[in-house]
Structure formats: structure tokens, C-alpha cells
Amino acid sequence: QVQLVESGGGLVQPGGSLRLSCVVSGFTLVNYAIGWFRQAPGKEREGVSCISSSGGSTAYRDSAKGRFTISRDNAKNTVYLQMNSLKPEDTAVYYCAAGYFCNWAPARYNYWGQGTQVTVSS
Question: What b/e sequence results for 21-31 when a residue is b if at least 16 CB atoms lie within 10 Å of its CB, and e otherwise?
């Protein structure tokens, strides 16, 4: 059974940090790129960051560059998203997804987690 389980979300003040984790099971993580997406109420799901299957290539949306860092530990079947200098506009449900290649289109991903809420507010 394929599963992606996100954790690490929560309420944080502006300027704070969170580290999201995505633990996968039921498939071989090393064969997949992993993307982090987010969806705020009333908005479309958007890509935030992606890491290739080898970990050798990463990508970030412009608003995340310099603040977010994606990494993976294939031995632990886990992908991380370190988020620093958080802003209220980062508030959303964050999802991880597995696909064959990094892509900003959600439809390109095969498997999805259930999401974790991130709220940035004072």
C-alpha cells in the first residue's frame, strides 16, 4: 500500500521556522522525485519545491528561494522541507507528492500525502 505521510506543520509566528517531513512507504523512494505543494483556501495548489530521485537536483518557486530547503534521506524513506523566515502568505496545507521527475504540474505526480497545515500568524 502506497503511503506518503506529512508531519511537522503547525502554528508559527512570522519569521519563525518549521521543518516538514514526508515519510513514504509502499514504494521505493529512490526511484521517485518528490515535490512539495501547498494550497491555501480558495487558491489553486502550487508547487513549492522539488528534489530529484538522486537528490542531485532541486528546484524552488521564487517566493521560497533563500528561505526553504528541500532534502531527502532515501535510507529513511523521508523527504524534508526546512522552512525559515516564514511569512503569513506561506499559510496553507502542505502536501508531498511522488513522481518520476520534478515538475510544477500536480497532475504529473503519481502519489500524494494527506497534507499538513502550516499557519503563520502573530
Answer: bbbbeebebee
